[in-house]
Amino acid sequence: MDAETESPTAGAPPHMSRRIPRLPSWLPFDAYLLALAATVALAALLPARGTAADVAGGASTGAVALLFFLYGARLSTAEALDGLKHWRLHLTVLACTFVVFPLLGLASGGLVPYVLTPELQAGFLFLCLVPSTIQSSIAFTSVARGNVPAAICAGSFSSIAGILLTPLLAALLLGSAGGGFSVDSLLKIVFQLLVPFLAGQLLRRWVGGFLTRHKKVLGLVDRGSILLVVYTAFSEGMVAGVWHQVTPARLGALLAAEAVLLALMLTLSWYGARRLGFGRADRIAIQFAGSKKSLAAGLPMASVIFGAHASLAVLPLMLFHQMQLMVCAVIAKRRSRDPEEPPARDDPAGDAASGPLPTRPLRLAGSR
After folding, report:
1. Fewer beta carbons within 10 angstroms: which end of the chain, N or C?
2. Which residues have C-beta within 8 Å of that of residue 281, sequence separation ≥ 6?
3. Are 93 and 158 in contact (CB under 8 A)?
4. In whole angstroms, how far apart are CA 229 and each of 25, 109, 125, 276, 356?
5. Distance between CA 49 and CA 67 in Å, rounded?
6. How confident is the model over 170-185, as pLDDT tens digits?
7. Sign of torsion, CA 81 87 89 95?
């Protein structure tokens, strides 16, 4: 559920005829990720305490509700449902996101306590439960000359499914680390995530035009809200004294575990899609949509699911987000030089998905 979700191609159907962003030629250390790092540093130096912590917590709760309202108002359900004709591809992406990823996250329990602490492993498992990205999946698929309409729909399906599946899977798999199945946690998820999202969907007809006209300003609201969530979560962690658990050695071990996770998902999604009979354009969409996780969706969800323990829970997701952008940027550029391949028989996008697409620069600050 990226802040800037709708970026279709010229080769797509008429309702997807806008231009697709293009990745920069250099590896993506963008301004927004630097802002996230600065927010973490600010929380470490000047954490919110006492009354300030109460105010920041209330503002963070409101920011999460606003984010999910905007996600619902922006997301075109009609466009997503139009892609059902390519259901095999979308089921494959959903299986990667909500079945294979969680299984690998559960397997990471074997890394405790020798590689990861229980708290870091809970965050590692949580990142495996988060939905896929939309904009960055579209951008990478476009650069690699893949099936962009399929990437749009797959990302949209993942975002919609993640509203329900991510909290449900967190409750089932994280146990006490994620709050478990309590009435309070269930009500928090419903009222802070699901209700605002559904309200946005219901009001999309009336507010969609306003959101489109003020896209840049609302993008700043999105990013500012997420920075507030990060500041609140990391402030609570500092006050609770949890950061003494993250030694440089533990941080290095976490990065190594995430590198293995990303490599496994990139490999399984690519060769698994080939084994299932998908053509090149579809395999590209599956690989990029099925191997990434959304920072924009994960951060506010973590603040609701983990509460005061969200600081360590979001650290693995923040690191994985930067890693996936860097690695997928390299892969997308290499895929763009692959020889042409006829589209698969079951590819409804046909030739429209296999050729080069018009591009414009993409600011990866929005590709969360």
Report:
1. C
2. 145, 146, 147, 150, 341, 343, 344, 347, 349, 353, 354
3. yes
4. 31, 27, 20, 40, 39
5. 25
6. 888 886 555 544 566 6
7. positive
> Pick the residue with more confidence: 4 or 237?
237
Take residue 261 and report the two structure tokens written for it.
């996770």
With tokens 């440089």, the residue in question is 248
Task: Give 294's Cβ-side CA count (13 Å radius).
Answer: 33
15-41 CB burial, b ≥16 within 10 A, e <16: ebeeebbbbeeeebebebbebbeebbe
The pair of three-digit structure tokens given for residue 10, joined into one six-digit string: 């010229």
Least-confidence region, from 107-111, 166-170, 261-265: 166-170
Structure tokens at 42: 């600010």
Q: How many CA atoms lie within 13 A of 115 on its CB side?
A: 15
Distance separating alpha carbons of residues 333 and 337, to the nearest angstrom: 7
243-252 CB contacts, 8 Å cutoff, 24+ apart: 243/44, 243/311, 245/117, 245/119, 245/120, 245/312, 246/117, 246/120, 246/312, 246/315, 250/116, 250/117, 250/120
**Could you tell me which residues come within 8 angstroms of residue 133 by beta carbon, excluding any fewer than 6 positions away?**
2, 155, 289, 292, 293, 294, 295, 296, 367, 368
- Is pTM beyond 0.70 here? yes
pLDDT of amino acid 353: 41
Tens digit of each residue's pLDDT (9 = 90 or more) over 294-313: 888 888 888 888 876 777 88
Nearest to 265 by CA among 110, 86, 99: 99
Which residues, other chains included, contact 261 with Cβ-Cβ below 8 Å and sequence gap of 6+?
Answer: 104, 108, 124, 128, 320
Question: Can you state the percent helix, strand and coil of the chain, rounding each to 5?
Answer: 75, 0, 25
Q: Is 70 helix (H, G, I), strand (E, B) or coil?
A: helix
Q: Is the dihedral of CA 9, 14, 16, 18 positive or negative?
A: positive
Among candidates 364, 361, 347, 360, which has minimal Cα distance to 151? 347
Q: What is the pLDDT of residues 6-45, one digit of tens each?
A: 333 333 444 444 444 444 444 445 677 788 888 888 988 8
Q: Summarize pLDDT for 217-265 with one digit per residue, the tens.
A: 887 888 788 888 888 877 877 776 666 668 888 999 999 999 999 999 9
Residue 329 confidence (pLDDT): 86
